[in-house]
Queue: 2 jobs
Job 1
Amino acid sequence: MTKNNEETSVESEAKTSQEIEDEERKTPFQMSFQRFMKNKLAVVGVVVLVLMVLMAVFAPLLTSHDPTKSDLMLVENKPSAEHILGTDGSGRDNFARLLYGSRISLIVGFSAMLFTLFFGIVTGAAAGYYGGKVDAIIMRIADLIYALPFFVLALTIIAIVEEVTIGIFVTIIAITTWPNLSRIIRGSFLTLREQEFILSAQSIGANDFRIIFKHFIPNTMGPIVVNATLMMATMIIIESGMSFIGMGIPQPTPTWGNMISEAQSIRILRDHPEAWLPPGLFILVTVLSINFIGDGLRDAFDPKSGDN
Amino acid sequence: MLFLLTVIIFGLAQAAPGDPFTANIDPSVDPEVYEQQREKYGLNDSLPKQYISWLGNFVTGDFGESIHYKGRSVKDVISVRITNTVYLSLFALIITILFAIPIGLYSARNPYSWFDYTATTFGFLGLSIPGFFFGLVSIYIFALNLGWFPSQGSVSVSVSGQTGITLFLDRLHHLVLPGFTLGLAGIATYMRYVRTEVSDVLKSDYVRTARAKGMSESSVLYKHTLRNALIPIVTLLGFELGVLLSGAVITEQVFNYPGLGTLFVDSITNRDYPVIMAINLLLGTTIMVGNLVADILYSIVDPRIRYD
């Protein structure tokens, strides 16, 4: 009896050490990935986001209506079999606009995030790596942009640019939002700079470019990925907000924010909830899933968070 | 810093295409009269000269004359609106503090309780819902369907001319929906901050010591825990000013609330540069002062911090 007990305990111990070995063989990325997959909310977020993207990509298959074609005989129609969500103030099909709108909203959100990421990494890396004057100048500019409320600065620039296209719009958002990321990257560069492996890389004659991309960036990847994800959520809210007050992507291009802007009229707001409620819910669901993903990534990259 | 801000704002305004007259000029107007008008408003002077005269006027409190609201000074136009925005931001700030601190505190004391989970869920939702969409939904429910609150404006027509408590209550009544809309994101953010900070402090040694000494729970909580937990949050509140003012632009638009935000959007549509520049400068200065105040407050709450 006792012997039997001993045997099993030895066996289970052997198994744990085997497990530990397995654990050690995993790359940090695999460990993070496993932790991420254990976070139910984050996985749900990924699924929802993938569905949203699929819906945007296959929009032409889901509706036969043209989102930009207006029909003045069909202004503000109630939902019908032909127009599931009715038509808007210019007689455009709301359901088609909702589907095609997700294309623009997602693309704008994603590319604004990429652009800001690019600005933020370049400026943050330069400031954190070179320090001194470069650092002082970049951080001064960042302070200035911080001193103006985001919407005020962005709207002022939009007022100057006469025609807003998607490209220009994305650039404006990037110009006004990079300081945040830049500061984060600068901060982690400043700590990394003091570490030995950077010194040894420098002493074997690696050039600045190589050091930044081979040694600094991989070591700041965690915060960069987490912030990029959360930033995309912010970008989608910003786009919809600016389109809502009529200063974002111009009509007739459909975006979620554009669609909701019709509800600025009390009549539409009261009588046609089917026109403005769905795009709002879509924004909410998309942003919520992106936030879940971002949260999951933060926990996954944090070595302090346990595996269970 | 402030100097750089003025230069940038002036540069932005100069980069704008057209001039205030092109928007509503009558084609039959004699070009000479047009030139005279430009001359009269000093639009033909050299840039540095325009900048100096503008800055000089600004320092002495003369913001120039609004071009859109003919014959009214910018100071006049702005000062009518500024009180409304101050009320709105103040109201939002107060409810942020009133909700975020107790909820965060209670969640931290009862982690993983149903209350904590509900609060976390609401926090996620509050961060993910675009402010303007929340505003529209709240108008739809509380103003149009339930009729509890007014949907627009800052004061009822019926109480105009009245003073004292009636006016105050009426204003407050108008503030509820926009205030919550503006404060929602803040409540969600600070609730999470307070929860994290308080639960960190609750684990610290001096709290255990305080409990071991037999201090009452309330004194442990309010004297030892809360005071220390709020230190980092005070600095964040300094930044909150910028977030509130930025959000006010959109919130005011949703509720048609006559504040600086609606004035700003109108001025951009009308290319009313003097007003745009004045608002930019005013908000930029306010935020800089706000950050300074936050720094000073920081050293008051945390006597360990000394500025040289």
Job 2
Amino acid sequence: MTMSAPSNAFGGQASPWVSRIAMAAVHFFILVLFLQNVAADTWSSVIGLLFAHLYSVVALTYWSKIERTAAGDTVIVTVTLEYVLMAIIFWERASAWPWSTMFGLGMVQVCAFAAVKYWKDLRRAPASAWFGLIVILVYVMVAATAPIIAPFGETEIVGSEYDVWSNKHLLGTDNLGRDMFTRLIYGGRNTVGIAFTTTLLAFIIGGFAGILAAAMRGWVDQVLGRLVDILMAIPSFIFALLILTIVGTSIPSLIMVIAVLDATRVFRLARAVSMNVVVLDYVEAASLRGEGLWWLIRSEILPNILPPLVAEFGLRFCFVFLFLSGLSFLGLGIQPPTADWGSMVRDNATLITYGDITPLLPAAAIAILTIGVNFVVDWFLHKASGLKD
Amino acid sequence: MTDAMTGDPKGEIILDMHGLRIEGRSDEIWHEIVHGVNVTLRRGEVLGLIGESGAGKSTIGLAAMGFARDGCRISGGSIMFDGVDLVKASDDSLRQLRGSRIAYVAQSAAAAFNPAHKLIDQYCEAPVQHGIMPRAEAESDAIDLYHRLRLPDPESIGFRYPHQVSGGQLQRAMTAMAMACRPDLIVFDEPTTALDVTTQIEVLSAIRDIVRQFNTAAIYITHDLAVVSQMADRIMVLRHGNLIEEGETRGMIEDPQKEYTRDLLAVRTFRKEISDEPNAEVPLLSVRGVNAAYGKVPVLFDVSMDIHRKRTVAVVGESGSGKSTMARVITGLLPPSQGEVFYDGQALAPGHRRRSKDDKRRLQMIYQMPDTAINPRQRVRSIIGRPLEFYLGMRGEERDARIVQLLEMIELDPDEFIDRFPGELSGGQKQRICIARALAAEPELIICDEVTSALDQLVAEEILKLLQRLQDELGLAYMFITHDLATVRAVADEIVVMLQGKVVEHGPKAEVLRPPHHEYTALLLSSVPEMDPDWLDNLLDERSGQTA
Amino acid sequence: MSMIGKLVAQRLALGLLTLFVVSLIIFLCVELLPGNLAQEILGQAATPETVAAFNRELGLDLPPHERYIAWLLDMTKGDFGRSLASQREISELLGMRVQNTFFLATLAAVIAIPLAVTLGILAALYRDSWYDRIVNVVTLTSISFPEFFVAYILIIVLAVNLGIFPSISNISEDLGFWEKVYRSALPALTLTLVVVAHMMRMTRAAIINLLASPYIEMARLKGLKPGRIILKHALPNALAPIINVVVLNLAYLVVGVVLVEVVFVYPGLGQLFVDSVSKRDIPVVQACSLIFAMTYVLLNLLADVLSIMSNPRLLHPR
């Protein structure tokens, strides 16, 4: 075994590391070649781009024959590099290629890498998990490409009020004469995006605090624990409404308030699972060795609590998503004219009493995504518990 | 109390398992774990099933009741119990046999008793539900059995809840419960494994007497050959779901036929060579008058001991004696409330956070459970490499070369093992990695906290030999914490005996093991089962002679 | 028994402390309002005189701790102050609505608890069977539905298409009990559907956890009948987790009520709360939050105390 570089943070040896970069570079080269030749037509360029991504990811992962675990690292390298270059090349066309679109494409790429990496597990996944994965993928793609696939503008008034379903307006129009189909697409982008950001924030706050409390114990644990107890003593829906009454409903305040309230739940879980790890001998051994707090958290605790945290992320996302839709439905969440699934139900609820199900479509869209995520998490948890035995 | 004579003619065959195959499921796939084993048992006979973990002995024991745990299934063969094939029997007829004609005694009585009901209620359940006797009769019968099993307060102990009774007593109460219907066969599944040696004696003798009194057939499952030779008429040695050897107890102990059985018997014969007396230099580690407490509960009382260079000091005691607390005080995890720890003549800071890196480096620790002692998300390379980086500042090729060296030292092939995760290692291999991690720091003293008690006996012996070789090569000093006197005999230069947080005896091995002993040392030493089928009888005779 | 007494007393004291802290938070939330409440309510055009008068009227010119104590004392006397929007006594607004809301929640609980616990135990007993798998998928699906989605589906099916129940719950004081039940049927059903799935999954998990314990295996090896194993060996130990599940979901009911009330225009506390939030009628919001939070705290307290009291190890100390 010959090597020159020390083992890196990813725990592997140096040689795959080199091939990772090489792989990323090749992938990237194909992408640039492709993009230089795209037609002006946005549709075909998007589809072509997706294919380029999928093809290169799958082909290269096999071609380079690097170990499967390296695929995850490759994602990070490739995506980062790609964004840097995209930013340079498309700076002028930034409005045509919004950041969210790039983010969405990145997500698709991550999905492809994950599919390659976990293909063995995926093949044995039950139908419900497959359903969930496909739902999530479709939602992400729709959200990412909303400005491209939506026939009209988000807040554009294009017809009379409550038009019926037609060729021009696939799902009719809403209470102000805006295209329902367009609003549905943009609503997904807004609601899912905000819920995702909120959950992410909640995990950053709650997860970090929870691990810290478990690792440091003593007064840090006490103070954080009591603080969370207090925040959790009031039902979060009520608490959120109370605070939103006072600070007002803007999207940033919505995100902050829900994230902080939700972080308490994440804190509880992160602290509990970290506690289970912290009492194990290998953490004791590391702290006896004299390792600092940062090492303990990053190398000893975090890798071992990742599976439950990932599952919890899915569940918390569902919770936040339903929570947010609930608020919007009450008219206290995302404010008009921004399209949002919860408020779309509310605005068009009158139609329901006439037996028209159009207003239920956004609600169904919420339900389907939540079901999908729940199915995936359920499968994941089942697998994680099965591996333990 | 009249014991039935050993070796009296046994009755007809009560249990006959033929070509038994059992499968277990992992990763959604069925794997065979018992490969066609034949077991026969006559009325009144005690059969010992012995083997290391994964031998399938518990699985076979449960199969004798027609039972397979979740994730297991009986896939082939027949189990004839008194003329009925349990493999083909209906659930209902199986249910009627269980508890009434075949009974079970579980390893952990504390977990196997329902916390919500009194002992006697759980006792009466089987006889009443199987319609064998009415409740009042069952109750008086229970008290009678509690007498016979020598439980304290037999009249009232049944009216307590499980958590109000000690472990050894619970195990006897469970034996009584198994006896309730006077079954033809009892399966004992490692009934004394979780107990301390001194408690084990009481439970063993109680179980043996009662089985003889009622002429019950029994399957006694254990990993301890010395224990089984006290209990069983006949022994079956199992390995990986196959029968290795079968024979009369005495014959097998005296003249084993198979290599594997010989290895198992030879396990306790390893002895280290007697090393020189310590020279009068300053001891490497010196504990002086240490008192320690967990919160307000005092655990250690005025403990003092010395460890000299290149010597092995064994700290022995039963659970709760404070021996692991000693290790925590020395490593600085639990600062003592009084007293000091000196290293090479220098006082160590009480808490480990205030000790220098070099103090930490020189004092390393190996843990009881290799499964939890290494991070499952790190490769062997990182596990061993980290102390090299951290203490010695090694990087790159230098570090990797040293890792290879260390792996060779612990007798693992570097090319094969360096990039494995702990999940891809066996228990013994994991413990070797722990040793390598300790060695990487180039320590002078290693604290070994029950390092072999989670391992199978053969593997444990290999580890002891390895540690011994390393001591000879590298001149290490060991502090060996253990409850197992066989280990003490094997590796110690000096022995510290602890009881309830105090040192009761302290001295060179030969001195401590030679009479006259301290009273507790004597009890501890005499309680360790020996590979002699008469040992328990002789011991009980001796002890009753002393008290009479 | 003294051990239990001590633990229960501890929990009660802790509960009381929590109530106190909750009231403090609700009070402070308004206190931390950026800028001035009067300015906020009266708008930028308000003259300094009107602002001062407004402050005097609400007692806002006093120091915070004095106001807090006065507010708390008023609350305990049932005086919640006046609504900013309608100038009516808040206690007058609350009276009937609190009753209605508790009526709705109780109705839902009465249907949901026995149903969920029974179905949950069955799913645990027949785990990995088809029944269990179907139950798993169905409950996963229904916990994924937003409450208003369930509500509107029920409206479309039961009210608009079949015309069995009214889609709007007109409840007034003079209605008879059964008439009230009839008119609250749809909101109660919605809440039931939402809560049953949660409760059932949690019950199932608690029982399965229990069935894996060695004393259940022991009971099976004693040849006991399956029914007896469940009733005699599993249930006494399952009591604590099940009680926890039930009470947690009751606490959820009280909150879930808010959305459902809005959909069905049910004259309860939730509706008042939502209206006041959108009007930024802060005294009413405070009063409603306090009532919701108190119920929540008390229910959690109840769960704590009940699970202590059903623990055999604590009931029969050494």
